[in-house]
Amino acid sequence: MQVLIALVLSMLILARSAWAETIYVSNEQDNTVAVVDGVTMTLQDTIEVGRRPRGMALSIDKKTLFVAEGDDNRIDMVDLARRQVVDRLPSGADPEFFVVHPDGKRLFVANEKDNLVSVVDIAAAKVIGTVDVGVEPEGMAVSADGRTVACTSETTSMVHLIDAATLELIDNLLIDTRPRAAAFSPDGKQLWVSSEIRGTATVFDAATRAQTGKIEFEVPGIRREGVQAVGILMSRDGDNAYVALGPANRIAEVDTKTLTVRRLYLVGQRPWHVALSDDQKRLISANGNSGDISFIDLENQEVVKSLPVGRGPWSVVIGP
Amino acid sequence: MPILNIRLGLPDLSRMRLALTFLMLLAMALPGLAEPQTLVIGYLGEQRKPPLPLGPLDEVVTDDGLQGARLGIADDASTGRFLGQQFRLQQVILKPGETPAEAIKEFAAAGLSFVVADLDAPQLLQASAAPGAERMTLFNSRAPDDRLRQEDCRKNVLHTIPSHAMLADALAQYLIWKRWQHWFLLVGPHPQDQAMAAALRRAATRFGAEITVDQPWTFRPANGRADTGHVTLQTEIPAATQVSDYDVLVAADEADEFGAYLEGRTALPRPVAGTQGLVATGWSAVNEEWGATQLQDRFHKLAGRWMLPSDYAAWLAVRSVGEAATRLHSLEPTAIGNYLRSDDFLLAGFKGQGLSFRSWDGQMRQPILITGPRLLVSSSPQPGFLHQRTTLDTLGIDLEESTCKF
């Protein structure tokens, strides 16, 4: 009997360690990053960071969390083992969103106030280049091969494609009103861009830069103005795209082949961004107005829990 | 066609030169952009006597409206430069005694189709009736008068400034949401005060508030900035507000003659709302939500002061034209005019949702900010006020109530 219990316990521990996953959520009104255990779905810790933290990303080695602080004009580096800010990077003015280049050495940062994308050398802690883009740059994406960086500009209604090596503008594509997020498909063939005011996502062929489709989101019972598309995330296999619908309080799951909305998940109020668990079975949304995150079980297609994490949850990142 | 655009910590001048080079290269490099087309938008303003500042912190502003239109042109250009569309403002400021007809004639001769009419109601009506105006779209960016959306509505006028009815409804919804249902309405002597008071009475009836006291302001405005000004006001205001109990004092004082003296001096300890205190407005410098920080920053950089409601309304007008041109890939005026009035038109206005024009009276539907002196308090429509089409139409004159016939 004791052997059996020990066996079961050790299996549980094994299962648990295999599952171990930590969720980080930036709280833009609290100036904190919430640390959530992804298995038990409980709040573990809260890390104090700079003012108005929004965009976040993990370093390639997954040991450091970069946090963009719009009101402090910098990017904080959080050591995830110690759970505290250990260093700072310059970012240009008013950083909102950024991406870590696959080379692991550079960040591409949208400077909302200055109509620039700043390129930050992480090791040197220096801005090593800037690119002029449209008014109010916001969403950032980088292709998996690292060649192309995409930046949306909200007032100009465009996505700007930047050659990551030369920092030249490759192209500027018109998007529906107030574009927010951009995302490349994992195979690099598609570029998706959301429009907040129109509630749409436009899909481009990344090579020809021709528009190949558009998804117009609709939520039964919610007027057109209330359906807005913000954060976009693709599953690792590229089959699904998840789009946060802001004030409609929904996450849309989109079939990337047919560009049809498979289902809508009702989450907390005003979801901004989403993240996928490492096994791709669980989706987490950061809900700005209700101060919580929603856990969506994608296998059973249901929202299994909402967890208060602080005021103004904005972005969510999943680490080991 | 890649365009050289690398910058490595260059000083500002080099940055500017490079930015210019970038624009020139862009213009030369992109096919179809070699000869960008230009759309000229008119701005028709009036020289106004600047209001006497009520307190030492008040700025005297003489270019409100115009600066908003200028920023609109700059924002239009930001997309336009990628599409081969240029925008320019042609301005006429009427001197006292001048009528708008001459300016409209000038605009018509120059082939203009869109004019920001930063005018008071009588001048706006004159402008809309002037020869040549029938082929134009005038944007009312100044006059909140409900009659311009009702019996005096005009087919060639769109309104980007909110109407009295919209402001009053927005405030009423917030006060009802707060359950401050009993109002003490204090009304100034001017026609604009009366018009605002009428809108507030209508809003009270619509949303279930009760005006328990409805009084004209009869005191002669004292100069609060005289050396003993506060002493006089401290004595006079309690006397003027000596009424039976209420929840909130709602002031209708468009000329800003007495409303600001009320807060902290009323006989009963009650909040002040309306044209002063808690103010319903189309725009305010306190708004930094929905991405507005960037708009406020851009405006401040351009104008050296905060963005006022008339600036915002003029900005909306110019941006509306730009947005239509962007979506249509065209500067053709008839197409733009039709698109502006269509169901498909939606403008991003830094108030959380897309803005569009009502088909029945040409009013731009928009959220209304409820502001305190230093911070944003709320934004209407309030939760729970429902509508069969869009909750934005709970503010102002709805389709079923409209008496406008174009």
Structure description:
The complex is a heterodimer of chains A (320) and B (406). With 320 residues, chain A is mainly beta. Chain A has 1 helix and 28 strands. Chain A has one helix at residues 2-19; strands at 22-27, 32-37, 42-48, 53-58, 64-69, 74-79, 84-90, 95-100, 106-111, 116-121, 126-132, 137-142, 148-153, 158-163, 169-174, 179-184, 190-195, 200-205, 211-216, 232-234, 240-244, 250-255, 260-266, 271-276, 282-287, 292-297, 302-308, 313-319. Chain A has a 4-stranded antiparallel β-sheet with strand order 3-2-1-28, with no helix packed on it. A 4-stranded antiparallel β-sheet of chain A has the order 4-5-6-7, with no helix packed on it. In chain A, strands 8-9-10-11 form a 4-stranded antiparallel β-sheet, with no helix packed on it. Chain A starts with a helix and ends with a strand. The mean pLDDT of chain A is 94. Chain B is of the alpha/beta class and 406 residues long. Chain B folds into 2 domains: 36-162 and 284-366, Response regulator (Rossmann fold); 165-280, Response regulator (Rossmann fold, 3-Layer(aba) Sandwich). Chain B has helices at 12-29, 66-83, 101-109, 121-129, 164-177, 191-207, 229-240, 292-303, 309-328, 333-340; strands spanning 37-46, 85-94, 114-117, 137-140, 157-159, 182-187, 210-216, 248-252, 272-274, 278-281, 347-348, 354-357, 364-365, 368-371, 376-380. In chain B, the strands form 3 sheets. Chain B has a 7-stranded mixed β-sheet with strand order 7-6-8-9-10-14-15, covered by helices on one side. In chain B, strands 2-1-3-4-5 form a 5-stranded parallel β-sheet, with helices on both faces. The termini of chain B are far apart. Classes of the chains: A mainly beta (320), B alpha/beta (406). At the A-B interface, strand 11 and strand 15 of A face helix 2, helix 8 and strand 11 of B.
